[in-house]
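Pasting as-is:
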Amino acid sequence: QVRFVESGGDLVQTGGSLRLSCAASGLTLDDYAIGWFRQAPGKEREGVSGISASDLSTYYADSVKGRFTISRDNVKKTVYLQMNSLKPEDTGVYYCAANTMRRRVPAGTMWLHEYDYWGQGTQVTVSS
């Protein structure tokens, strides 16, 4: 059974930092590109960052470029999202998921329908 578990969310002030973790089980993490998504209240789920399976190429949404860094440890079966200089608009539930359609994240966007095995999410709240 494939399972993703997100953790590391918290309440922080503007300008603060958080490190989210996405622990995977039931699959060979090396075989999958992994994405981080977020969903704010009343808004659609949006792609934040993704990391490819093999060449470790990455994607970042324009809103987080220069502030967020995605990385992966295939031995620990964990993907991380380091979030710095947090803003109130970063508030939301953060999810990770595996791309079941391609091993390399596209350069321009993250297609929600390509991802599966969603975790339960971790809440990030940035106070102003």
